[in-house]
Please model this.
Amino acid sequence: MLYGVIADIHGNLEAFETVLAELHKADIDRLICAGDVVGYAAHPSKCIEIIRERADAVVAGNHDWAVAGKMDTSYFNSDARDAVDWTRSRLSEEEISWLANLPLTEQIDGISLVHSTLYNPEYFDYIQTLYQAELCFSRQETSISFVGHSHVPVIFREADPVEYFLRERYELEEGDRCIVNVGSVGQPRDSDPRASYVLYDSEKREVQMFRISYDISATTEAILDADLPITNAHRLRYGR
Model:
């Protein structure tokens, strides 16, 4: 089975459609999403429509739950809070209800899916240290899990101590357990502005990470035309 794995679309329709075109070329069997369909960019409703049509599994991200009114946004920076308020005002009650009912975690075909961490998914912590990865492995019931949230693609492998890799391709060996952060479709933060996505071949047990350029100018123009925070537009050009 060939899976397309994405996360952190954040209402960026141009990046999302570009990634979907690449996944179509790859002839994937299933599409799964590790959360944050909305937030920051100007096309939340269309991104919700597409992900509902295409995805086999979607979990809740912190921006999804924030827009749905399910979490406190006081720890968000001001631009993120403004984007949450703007997004909420543009969605229908039915779309907000769909976001509110997204699960925090999901298992599909022996794959774990979560936006943040498996040990405290409702707190939306980041997996940025080997210790945090180790905590996740203690709750991981499958050989592989896919996460988002940090917007930085990286692979953690369970070992003593935990190892991490910044690789474009990784093949799980017998007995391996891994956590794969798939990066961000709509707002990368690793100084590479290209959209990020992953292909996972469950028969070969092979993970491939991809980057693809998209029309950033169209996205930034839409953000500015929508009167969303200017930072949301400018950061895209720098992958920040």
User: Anything to note?
Assistant: The chain has a mean pLDDT of 96.
